[in-house]
User: Which sequence fits this backbone?
């Protein structure tokens, strides 16, 4: 096989973007042969592909070798399981599932390891974060002592949540900023620093919008080695910012907007200086330096290309879907901690979160206000991301 026949399910913003990139020839070895959409906009998008409104029919059509899942969150699990069991290669948009228990079910369906199973964590291709990971893994920073990531540049209007019946609800979206906007940030967090052992979350629900899910979050992560981290995010703060600060033995690294790296480097590691300096108020000498980064990375196109390369050439995956459970677990633990008003030990019990989320989804009395009436069917078709 020299070309992978791909089916795309879900033609919202991201599905259309992936389709456009492949049609434009930006991804070698991938050819879209089937499209599946259930909301009536599909005829406008067809350029010779087979059209489906039933994803299971597309999965079993024999016309695709792989599927790209770009549908609302809850359906990632059921579609992914069916595709894997049918023997397809699978690439799923973030998050891979809404909660840890569904992640476990989806991952368990990947029994044929010859079939490629990947997630669309395109931020791993960002040259800035690749450089940060290299600096951590190589020991250039020394042992990490504290991390603070404030990512509040996810501002959304109330109308944004109205342009889709699923948005801003437990039943439709399975969460708010943690589940929709921040899977990439949480994936990068665990990719860079590993999983913490304890999580304490402080979420506010519908603080800034007419929604029932979280739109303002502060979380504290604790590691057994004493390292602590804070993660702050919101969709209701303007102007927002995106600043990652890492305090380590050899200095302080600051990443702004995912584009610039500044390193205030200690001439002598701080713990060593602390124990050897013969002065009460001395500080280790430090140097300011901007670390150059060549490019922003290939983003979605690079993940698509890597997916094709893994199928056709055996390339190593940049973002295995199995790793997607980690960002979901962090998001779940932050919410569960808020609901229980307690610290959550990791790995968390998947059933605890699933039970509470199911109850919230099934017994919600939340009703969207009249602003939702402004949302058209076309708005809904555009709102899968």
Assistant:
């Amino acid at each position: 096989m020299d070309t992978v026949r791909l089916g795309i399910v879900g033609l919202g913003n991201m599905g259309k973007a992936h389709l456009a990139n492949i049609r434009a020839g930006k991804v070698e070895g991938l050819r879209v042969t089937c499209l599946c959409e259930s909301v009536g906009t599909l005829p406008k998008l067809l350029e010779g592909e087979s059209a489906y409104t039933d994803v299971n029919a597309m999965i079993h059509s024999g016309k695709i070798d792989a599927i790209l899942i770009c549908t609302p969150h809850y359906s990632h699990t059921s579609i992914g399981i069916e595709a894997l069991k049918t023997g397809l290669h699978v690439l799923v948009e973030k998050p891979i599932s809404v909660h840890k228990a569904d992640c476990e079910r989806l991952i368990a369906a990947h029994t044929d390891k010859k079939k490629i199973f990947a997630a669309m964590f395109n931020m791993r291709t960002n040259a800035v974060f690749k450089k940060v990971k290299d600096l951590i893994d190589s020991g250039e920073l020394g042992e990490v002592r504290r991390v603070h990531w404030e990512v509040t540049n996810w501002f959304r209007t109330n109308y944004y949540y109205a342009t889709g019946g699923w948005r801003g609800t437990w039943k439709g979206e399975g969460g708010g900023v943690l589940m929709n906007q921040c899977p990439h940030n949480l994936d990068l967090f665990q990719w860079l620093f590993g999983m913490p052992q304890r999580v304490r979350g402080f979420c506010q629900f519908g603080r800034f919008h007419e929604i029932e899910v979280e739109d303002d979050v502060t979380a504290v992560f604790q590691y057994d080695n004493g390292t602590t981290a804070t993660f702050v995010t919101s969709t209701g703060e303007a102007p927002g910012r995106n600043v990652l600060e890492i305090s380590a033995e050899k200095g302080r690294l600051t990443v702004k907007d995912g584009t610039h790296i500044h390193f205030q480097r200690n001439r002598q590691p701080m713990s060593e200086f602390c124990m050897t300096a013969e002065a009460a108020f001395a500080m280790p000498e430090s140097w300011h330096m901007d670390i150059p980064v060549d490019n922003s990375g290939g983003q979605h196109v690079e993940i698509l290309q890597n997916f094709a390369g893994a199928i056709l050439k055996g390339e190593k995956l940049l973002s295995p879907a199995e790793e997607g459970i980690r960002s979901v677990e962090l998001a779940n633990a932050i919410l569960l901690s808020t609901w229980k008003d307690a610290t959550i030990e990791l790995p968390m019990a998947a059933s605890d979160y699933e039970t509470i989320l199911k109850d919230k989804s099934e017994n919600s009395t939340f009703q969207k206000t009249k602003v939702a009436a402004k949302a058209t069917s076309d708005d809904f078709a555009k709102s899968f991301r």
User: Anything to note?
Assistant: The longest helix spans residues 324-340. The domain at 4-121+298-320 is CATH 3.40.50.720 (Rossmann fold). Residues 372-385 have pLDDT under 50 and may be disordered. The chain is about 35% helix and 25% strand.
